[in-house]
């Protein structure tokens, strides 16, 4: 299929929306009661998602009622899919704009590498848009300290499972975007595994690029990964986080920022 410069880029958003089950004042001492209030936070989150105007939303820490609320708020303009973690209150969602993107298949991968009772997963959707076919994965990996040996790093082992799944089950779809809260810094064994397998950071040139502020430590933990040559990324702007920026807040409804990238297909590809 010949593609031209007239093909509109595909806006993909990755966002850990923060499950309400994990919202506890002791965990977020800098956040005001108003910032943590369930109803008010949900309203801010829904408004923020709508304002992002994504073609594809890849969401993490989504509770079943949050998935339903987002689906209702986005309305018939979007089609969605959800997979819950086993034994946990949350899971992952994907929403695609119906007039641009068709969801042709949805697959859930519950990682074999995990601590007992601590399920993590990837929700994978095979999509078709006006520029061609692609797959997106929304995933949430297990956090491990950067100093963890690679052979024992659960986040790295989970990510490798996802890449192996891609090659074994979805090799016919060469265009991939892997989105999610990788719970890993750019110097981690997780990101190293991605780079070793030929993926790239779509937001490498983005500054600022931190997506969360944990106990006064600003970090990038959220990523949109792709294979160079298959897509051309144009990352959006992120607000600058200070050491004292509270998250969640009445500005930021989650403890992560949404990460948005416009992906274009190379002309003539």
Write a structural description.
This protein has one domain: 4-Layer Sandwich (Deoxyribonuclease I, Chain A). Helix content is 20%, strand content 32%. The chain is built from 5 helices and 14 strands. It has helices at residues 33-36, 38-52, 64-74, 154-169, 189-196, and strands at residues 10-16, 56-62, 78-84, 91-97, 101-110, 121-129, 132-140, 176-181, 200-201, 212-214, 217-219, 222-226, 232-235, 259-264. Residues 1-5 have low confidence and may be disordered.
CATH class: Alpha Beta
How would a textbook summarize the main sheet?
6 strands, mixed
Under CATH, the homologous superfamily reads: Endonuclease/exonuclease/phosphatase
Q: Number of helical segments?
A: 5
The helix fraction, in percent, is 10-25%
Helix and strand content put the structural class at: alpha+beta
Provide tags for this entry.
269 residues; alpha+beta; Deoxyribonuclease I, Chain A; 6-stranded mixed sheet
Short description:
The protein has 5 helices and 14 strands. By secondary structure, the chain is of the alpha+beta class.
Please render the helix and strand layout as text.
Layout: E1 10-16, H1 33-36, H2 38-52, E2 56-62, H3 64-74, E3 78-84, E4 91-97, E5 101-110, E6 121-129, E7 132-140, H4 154-169, E8 176-181, H5 189-196, E9 200-201, E10 212-214, E11 217-219, E12 222-226, E13 232-235, E14 259-264
Parallel strand pairs: 1-2, 7-8
Antiparallel strand pairs: 1-14, 2-4, 3-4, 5-6, 6-7, 8-12, 9-12, 10-11, 13-14
């Amino acid at each position: 299929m010949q593609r031209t410069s007239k093909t509109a880029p595909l806006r993909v958003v990755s966002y850990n929306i923060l499950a309400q089950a994990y919202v506890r004042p002791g965990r977020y001492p800098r956040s005001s009661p108003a910032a943590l209030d369930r109803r008010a936070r949900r309203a801010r989150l829904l408004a923020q998602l709508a304002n992002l105007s994504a073609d594809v939303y890849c969401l993490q820490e989504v509770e079943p009622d949050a998935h339903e609320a987002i689906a209702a708020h986005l309305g018939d303009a979007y089609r969605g899919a959800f997979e819950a973690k086993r034994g946990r209150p949350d899971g992952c969602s994907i929403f695609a704009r119906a007039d641009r993107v068709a969801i042709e298949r949805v697959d859930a991968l519950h990682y074999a590498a995990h601590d007992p009772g601590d399920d993590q997963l990837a929700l994978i959707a095979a999509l078709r848009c006006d520029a061609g076919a692609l797959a997106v994965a929304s995933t949430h990996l297990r956090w491990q300290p950067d100093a963890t040996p690679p052979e024992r790093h659960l986040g790295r082992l989970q990510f490798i499972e996802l890449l192996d799944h891609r090659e074994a089950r979805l090799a016919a779809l060469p265009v991939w975007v892997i989105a999610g809260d990788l719970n890993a810094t750019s110097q981690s064994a997780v990101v190293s595994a991605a780079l070793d397998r030929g993926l790239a950071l779509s937001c490498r040139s983005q500054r600022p690029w931190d997506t969360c502020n944990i106990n006064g430590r600003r970090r990038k933990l959220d990523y949109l990964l792709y294979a160079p040559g298959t897509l051309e990324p144009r990352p959006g702007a992120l607000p600058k986080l200070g050491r004292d920026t509270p998250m969640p807040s009445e500005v930021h409804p989650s403890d992560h920022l949404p990460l948005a990238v416009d992906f274009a297909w190379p002309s003539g590809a």
